[in-house]
Design goal:
This is Lipoprotein. This protein is mainly α. It folds into two domains: 6-68; 75-177. The chain contains six helices and no strands. Helix 4 (101-115) packs parallel to helix 6 and helix 5 packs antiparallel against helix 6 (147-177). The chain starts with 5 loop residues before the first helix and ends with a helix.
């Protein structure tokens, strides 16, 4: 079944209105009906354009705020504290071994799942920083990591990225609605 767009729906409604009233009205009356319907369509189109323009402005503002936040450096002490909270005994990322890298990702995701709903965008910046450090460490020791562990790590990486993207979309959606 073909979906009708707003304009094609409006034309169908207009034609239906004209054909229903065509037998009982004069050409001048039908002309006035067409003008009224066209005015209604113009009003609807103007409202939709205004809403779209406002949403675009809000999205641009959200993007601008996000860029400004990303330009601010992360505090080293806060990063260390956050790493300790997220990774626990695996917080010393630079010393992770091929045997401990997979449990570090598991710990990161366990904490991310538990805390993500309370996190602000800045908290996500810290979590992402820790995640990137883990990825860098993985890159350095990858050739010594068991295949089974690497596959599990890839799944955990995908989950982390999904959680982060989901939060970004949620925040963008809220910014556009406001």
């Amino acid at each position: 079944m073909k979906r009708l767009s707003l304009s094609s729906f409006a034309v169908v409604a207009l034609v239906g209105t004209i054909s229903l009233s065509g037998c009982d009205t004069t050409p001048r009356e039908r002309q006035e009906i067409v003008r009224d319907e066209a005015r209604k369509l113009d009003t609807l189109a103007d409202r939709a354009a205004d809403k779209l323009r406002n949403a675009g402005r809000r999205a641009a503002r959200f993007d601008s705020v996000s860029r400004a936040r990303n330009r601010e450096p992360l505090d080293a002490a806060s990063t260390a504290t956050f790493a300790q909270q997220l990774l626990g005994t695996y917080a010393d990322v630079e010393n992770l071994t091929p045997a401990t890298i997979e449990p570090a990702y598991v710990q990161l995701l366990r904490q991310t799942r538990a805390q993500r709903k309370q996190w602000s965008q800045r908290d996500w910046d810290y979590a992402t920083s820790i995640y990137k450090r883990l990825n860098e460490r993985l890159k350095a020791i990858r050739l010594d990591v068991k295949g089974r562990d690497e596959i599990h790590i890839r799944a955990l990486q995908a989950e982390f990225t999904t959680h982060e993207s989901s939060r970004d979309l949620k925040d963008l959606g809220q910014a556009v609605k406001e």
